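Troubleshooting: if your tokenizer reports a length mismatch, compare your output against this known-good record of 135 residues.
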Amino acid sequence: MRIAVVSAPAANGETPDYITSLAKGMSMMGHHVDIIDVWKEDGMRLPAYEYIAVAAEPVSLFSSKIPENISKVLSKGSSLVGKKSAAFIKKTGLFSARALSNLMKVMEKEGMRINWSDILFNAPHAEAMGKHIGA
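Known-good structure output:
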């Protein structure tokens, strides 16, 4: 299965280790996985994937806001209606559950069908979660 992992860290920079571990777990199950960074790419390739996993982290320690680039990337990827998807938030502060809810609202606004969501604690936990996608 072709899977896109949409990486949405709080700030522009390198891809965080929990996102690469999530992708590694998916690829260990035999899936073709590509990481799409919301700070560097526009999301035009998203309709080509069968499954889209969005992994984000809240903007700050005491906030439930997610990076605004997520909605921009998802809206540019036309025809995402009905796509199977997963929503993941990195546990960073007090409002991670609320941030996960906000992420799911953004994804559902684009018509994506979320069949799994979870809060990621660290890289090994993310890798374990990645092994369950598409199984």
